[in-house]
Amino acid sequence: MSLVLRAEHIRKSFGNVEVLKDINLSVEKGSVVSILGPSGTGKTTFLRCLNYLEKPEAGKLTISDVSVDFSHISKKDIQNLRRKSTMVFQQFNLFRNKTVLENVTEGLIYGYGKPKKEAVEIAMKELERVHMADYAKMYPSELSGGMQQRVGIARALAPRPDVILFDEPTSALDPELVGEVLDTIASVATLGITMIIVTHEMHFAQEVSSKVVFMSHGEVVEEGSPDEIFVHPKEEKTRQFLQRMLKREEG
């Protein structure tokens, strides 16, 4: 399979704290990559670097036909890079004063230049996919957290990006709502869209992933297939983390 994303030697610091230490990642087209690791280890920061919501000090990134060098990046580079991926956020990040439909069409019209009629058609198709078409005229405040996140997923799907980035998409949800969002993401995975998911849902990651990456203290400790990471981890750090997290899920 061909690579759709390659991150090389990504470094990021906040003040004197080095959060990302020479991160490298290759992602094949159509694959689902889950990034696991303890809180505060740089997973979300790395994800945000991939669409320049955070600015790395160094490193190179290629998504499809766009390549950038973070040490000297132009506004046009940033714009081109951001068109290649979309993001599903922890806190949904929906416009509170816009309807469900408008939340999905806004980016298509103003970010991608789609005519309104076409944007509405695309939006309704994606809302149908995540079982939210019946709520198109409602506002975020009228929806549960799980429903809001499903709208966020529809919004991310609508431009048909090369990569969708999921930043702990269930962490802000009540436990009883987690399943509906995980089921939605699993159904999206069957579409062949490349996804990178930062998650604390271990069983979900094991089931849905093509590749699993374990990070700790700003570094990639190991990566491999779900079987290699969950069943036969090579590193003690990985083993201890998974034992702790799987025990918590089962408890």
UniProtKB/TrEMBL annotation:
Protein name per Swiss-Prot or TrEMBL: ABC transporter domain-containing protein
Membrane-topology descriptor: Peripheral membrane protein
Compartments, record wording: Cell membrane
Pfam families: ABC_tran (PF00005)
Molecular function (Gene Ontology), one example: ATP binding
PROSITE patterns membership: ABC_TRANSPORTER_1 (PS00211), ABC_TRANSPORTER_2 (PS50893)
Keywords for the protein's UniProt record, in alphabetical order: ATP-binding, Cell membrane, Membrane, Nucleotide-binding, Transport
Domain ABC transporter: 5-242
Keyword Membrane: yes
SMART domains from the UniProt entry: AAA
Signal peptide residue numbers: none
A GO cellular component entry from the record: plasma membrane
